[in-house]
Amino acid sequence: NQRGTIGSRVNEAGYKVMNKIDITGKSVLEIGAGDIRHDKYWKGKPHKYTIVDNLKTMLDKSIKRIKEIGVPYEGHYLNNDEKFQLPFEDESFDLFISFYNFEHLYPISSYTEEIKRVLKKKESFIIGAVPIEGGLAWG
Asked: What is the pTM for the complete model shown?
């Protein structure tokens, strides 16, 4: 558990990247959102927040938190026993968020292809952070 340790401070440093982009009115997709601890760094509020997870308990936790934040949302449970496929049309989202999650997505290429497919081709963004476990800050 990283809370209350240097890991928590490292995570918070990553979340601060959220204040670099105005998300007002954006359609947002996040896979594995957890408790959405980056919301305190948001500039504005999105039009809609879509959460995808392959763990029902984590999806429920994310939905509970996004309700508290007061943003319209959709929650999607995906059982990815086979090829990863998102249930959205091409170019559906303005923003994809991923904090400390890419290390859990395997094979990464199927995920990145799907994310690329559902992001709008013009003026869309990917924002987040990837863990550096094993690095100096974690040691």
From this structure: 0.88
